[in-house]
Write a structure and sequence with these properties.
This protein is α/β, with parallel strands linked by helices. Helices cover 36% and strands 11% of the residues. A hairpin with a 2-residue loop joins strand 5 and strand 6. The structure holds FE2/S2 (inorganic) cluster and magnesium ion. The chain crosses the membrane at residues 128-146.
Length: 630
């Protein structure tokens, strides 16, 4: 194709015929070209430069975003890669969303960022686009500490719920980029390195939670938790465990959208910079071939991505993101469902020994070969004919790198014959409590017996209710109770906060209880662990939601073998409670009425967001939405 052909920028203004009529927003095509040349030349570009493939580079740097602190270096290297290969690199900004500094949650802003990304890719004269992004994982501790005086630390947990959120840049960029359907090349910022405390490695953010839980239980004091706070994020980059950031990086590589080692190279490594240069080089080739995501991404690409998700014990958030991403693709809309995750999970073992399911950090994974080594092991389970962004198939890439197969002693990537967890690290539950599904990261359960458990519910109606009562010594709760948190679903608490990791009531924590069966319609950070059922759909805020009618004392069963989430009340009681609640909601003129009147992005969000099993995208953005395939 001609570089930036719709804009005609490669065409000299002396040309008077043969112009494409695509973008004639200033009148005739010739005058439109003339005017655009005026302004692009103000930037100093020559006709020669403009005759090259133009590669846009999305700059998501922000002074509030430590996960993206290396973006300026990556841009420089990506530009070098573009320009050494005959392209013209032009950077431009989109919004930058950091986990901890995106009130109310970063998930609230994911769809906004996807719209920004889609529209700016469509709007500008670029032939391919490098999307530089990290993915953010919950990192609440620094926020808590510097937002308050140290000595107030014991008062803080009640505020924490409103700040929880997660990991949105790469999902947002993939959603936007696939919808824009111009050639796109994700470039990940990379994970941080682990820190050290008293001779032990620690890293964001699994160890944020473990240590915070120890602090709540009185096992460590305020001086020690403060010292730990200094070390949890010792370098820039995304969280260094298999949280959502690392999960989405691995999944994006498995989709065939970036170099395989680009998933794990540390943010502060020279390897990371070379990957940026390589991405620049790839972008020129992809621009020339005009290889668009809707053309090379197929169902098989997503099956590979989900296989990897299961094999790495990836974040539950990736389920929501992958559903949203697939639903942007007109041929895959509705093809990838929760059932797909469940089916693949049943035949895929967990092979990676990384936190939170295992013990190690992302740089350990990188050091033993990262995704390239993992995919060699997973080979029998993959669709090797899936195309990648470079035009090669996944099988061709793996064949070319056979020499990098694991041929040395290591304990990070297990063989298929000796997995860390036999199958279904992520499992999908159904039942009268979750007719449209729920998700559990079974491999991260601390007390495995809780995966099959029946207990009485202790219900919290929303985050505020939880904050008020969870540590009340009078709360009637035992280690066998099932903690239920409603009202943190996509509509109920816009952004679906990562509050699903309901804290163990302090009085139980103090006796050594480290895990309980916990249920919510929200999310949890990919770095967190426990027996936590998430994403219950439909969420409690939906008037007919069975989850909305659970009462304290009801018996709830989680049965992992049968993938069951069951509320032990009769159908009649269930239906009558649902009707009563629906009528009550309507009688009070209802939240739905209030939503209609809300202004701004928040109003748009609440009116348009779909449920977790659909990806919590806006209904009008998914490929099934009105005009979705344009
Ligand atoms: Fe950015 Fe964890 S806060 S990846
Ligand atoms: Mg996260």
């Amino acid at each position: 194709q001609e570089p930036n052909s719709d804009y005609n920028l490669a065409t000299p203004i002396t040309t008077t015929s043969g112009l494409r009529q695509g973008l004639t927003s200033y009148g005739d095509a010739h005058f439109s070209l003339f005017l655009r040349k005026v302004f692009i030349k103000a930037l100093g570009y020559s006709e020669d430069a403009l005759s090259r493939p133009i590669v846009g580079i999305i700059n998501t740097f922000s002074g509030f975003n430590p996960c993206h602190a290396n973006v300026p270096q990556l841009i420089e290297a990506a530009k070098r890669g573009v320009q050494l290969n005959g392209g013209l690199a032009v950077e431009f900004p989109t919004i930058s969303v950091h986990e901890s500094f995106s009130h109310p949650t970063s998930m609230f802003l994911r769809n906004l960022m996807s719209m920004d990304t889609e529209e700016m890719i469509k709007a500008q004269p670029l032939d391919a686009c490098i999307m530089i992004g990290g993915v953010y994982i919950l990192f609440m501790l620094p926020w808590l500490l510097f937002s308050s005086r140290r000595r107030d630390i014991f008062d803080l947990p009640k505020y924490s719920l409103t700040f929880l959120g997660c990991d949105k840049t790469v999902p947002a960029q993939l959603m936007g980029g696939i919808s824009a359907n111009k050639p796109i090349l994700p470039l990940i910022t990379g994970p941080m390195l682990p820190g050290s405390h008293r001779g032990k490695r620690i890293g964001a953010c699994t160890d944020c939670r473990n240590n915070w839980a120890a602090f709540r239980a009185g096992e460590i004091d305020v001086e020690e938790i403060s010292a730990i706070n200094e070390e949890l994020a010792p370098t820039i980059g995304t969280c260094g465990v298999m949280g959502t950031a690392s999960t989405m990086a691995c999944v994006t590589a498995a989709l065939g959208m970036m170099p395989l080692r680009g998933a794990s190279a540390p943010a502060v490594s020279s390897a990371r910079i070379r990957i940026a240069e390589e991405t620049g080089a790839n972008a020129v080739a992809v621009a020339k071939a005009s290889r668009k995501p809707q053309e090379f991404l197929t169902k098989e690409s997503f099956l590979n991505a989900i296989t990897v998700l299961q094999a790495i014990g990836g974040s539950t958030n990736a389920v929501v993101h992958l559903l949203a991403i697939a639903n942007r693709h007109p041929q895959l809309q509705g093809v990838i469902t929760l059932e797909t995750f469940e089916e693949i999970g049943r035949k895929t073992p967990l092979l990676i020994d990384l936190k939170p399911s295992g013990d190690n950090y992302m740089n350990d994974f990188h050091n033993v070969g990262g995704m390239l080594a993992l995919l060699q092991v997973l080979r029998p389970l993959l669709h090797l004919s899936a195309k990648t962004v470079t035009g090669q198939t996944l099988g061709e890439i793996l064949d070319a790198a056979r020499s990098r197969m694991l041929s040395f002693e290591q304990n990070i990537i297990r063989p298929l014959s000796d997995p860390l967890f036999p199958s279904s690290s992520l499992a999908v539950l159904h039942g009268n409590l979750a007719p449209n599904g729920a998700v559990i990261k079974a491999s991260a359960s601390k007390y495995r017996h809780l995966l099959t458990h029946t207990g009485p519910a202790v219900v919290f109606e929303n985050s505020a209710d939880l904050a008020l009562r969870i540590d009340n010594p009078a709360l009637e709760v035992t280690k066998d109770s099932v903690l239920v948190l409603k009202g943190i679903g996509p509509i109920g608490n816009p952004g679906m906060p990562e509050a699903g990791l309901i804290p163990i009531p302090r009085k139980l924590a103090a006796t050594g209880v480290k895990d309980m069966l916990r249920l919510s319609d929200g999310r949890m950070s990919g770095t967190a662990g426990g027996t936590i059922v998430l994403h219950i759909s439909p969420e409690a805020a939906v008037p007919r939601s069975p989850f909305g009618i659970v009462e304290t004392g009801d018996l709830i069963t989680c049965d992992i073998e049968n993938r069951l989430l069951h509320l032990d009340v009769s159908d009649e009681v269930l239906q009558s409670r649902i009707s009563q609640r629906k009528n009550a909601l309507e009688a009070e003129a209802g939240p739905a009425q209030a939503r209609k009147k809300k202004r701004g992005y928040r109003g748009l969000y609440e009116r348009s967001v779909n449920q977790a099993h659909e990806g919590t995208d806006f209904d009008f953005l998914s490929a099934a939405g009105p005009g979705g395939s344009d």
